[in-house]
Amino acid sequence: MRKLFLPLILSLLLLPGCALSSFETGSLMHPPRATGEMAKIQDLITKEVGADIIFKYPLNGDYRSAIIMHDIDNDGEDEAIAIYQVVSEQTGSHVMIMDKINGEFVKVGDFLDQSSDVDKVSFADLRGDGRDDLILGWNSYNNSGKTMTTYLYENNEYVAMKFRETYSDFVAGDFDGDSKSEILALSLSRTDTLNSQSANIEDSVANAKLIKFNEDIFNFDVIGSSMMDSKVIKYGSIKFGQINSYQVGAVIDSIVAGSAMETEIVYWDNSKNRLVSPLFNKYTTFLRNSLVISDDINSDGMIEIPVMDQEQYGSHRNDAYILSFVRYETEKDQFYNIESLIKEDINSYIFIVPEIWKDGENGEYKILVLFNNDVVRICKKEQSEGKIVAGEEIIRISVISKQELKDLNKNDENIILNQDGDKVYVAKISNKESTLAISEQEIRKDFRLI
Ligand SMILES: [Ca+2]
Ligand SMILES: [Ca+2]
Ligand SMILES: [Ca+2]
Hints:
By secondary structure, the protein is mainly beta. It contains 7 helices and 29 strands. Strands 1, 2, 3, 4 and 5 form a 5-stranded antiparallel beta sheet that branches. The protein has a 5-stranded antiparallel beta sheet with strand order 18-19-20-21-29. The protein has a 5-stranded antiparallel beta sheet with strand order 24-25-26-28-27. The longest helix is centred in the N-terminal third of the chain and has 14 residues, at 36-49. One calcium ion binds next to loops.
């Protein structure tokens, strides 16, 4: 039975971070439009610190407002967290935590950080006490890396704890299964210190560090670190979740040179008691000229990783290619193909690879995809003198204009798949007798605009 992942593939995600440059710093001067509860919160801030403040909006992550609502004391009601700069102070940022007590917001924490801009806000239960602790990442405008502050609740008050470790990106999650979250901090390689004699080489190469709260010393410990690919320019999407049925970890899609992407995995190996990044130095497996990111594409609760078929990738244009989504089995160090699709980036469509075109569960195919001038030809893969060549054509998908549609030979069995403006998507079964032939019904089912 085919897995039902078509609806999900429609949300097939391109890396959201790629459009980051469009963030308008001009909007920082405008506070959020205050209505209802938000107005009460702003009134409280004004009462406490005056009206002459600039709200700070996180540039990355899931929370992008300057006043963030989240239940951090586990009483079922949201607290408000405001991040702002006081204009007269010129530098630094304030973090004010407000709790609703008897229907009114009151200030329960107020902190000053030297940093001027917020990178990312996240919440995780770092102490296992049921409270979602606030994790705040601060931007840095030199090469020294971003800094992170956590705000924990202890002895009836919030305390701020700044990390010694810097990061390029981070994700929180329960990596070791003890019902407390850890923070995985990722760093890019630093060319500025790589050449410096005094620099600690460990801190100069790209790495991942797992940071865990230690109740005994009331501070954070780095409990493990692992090497990451130093060719990475920017961490794009980081997801914490099930890598397979028995292992949780982080799946990291990153930008490498030439706007290609790759994927790395980092998890805590409980049997060896250490942090591992098993794809380190194997990254070419996941190198792709496509910004498709890892995701749970079939809603089975496990994250699949996109792989661009190397045969297609190596020998043909990259505008149309086979993309497989694989699951990584950490214990066997093997990948299993979960779903596959042909992706055409110029005219923006996908075609789900039917089972009969697949060759085993390791992501091999019986087909080759050829792309030329808006025509994708799907051909039987054949071997000739040790080389892979295109055999007979099975189907072709063409994108033509409405005028060209009128001129089509009526004797040919053309299947109109979709129309989008002047673009008409037409499929043709090239060889009905082929062992790899599929029906018109199957073609219609497998085709989708994205
Ligand atoms: Ca609360
Ligand atoms: Ca844990
Ligand atoms: Ca999945």
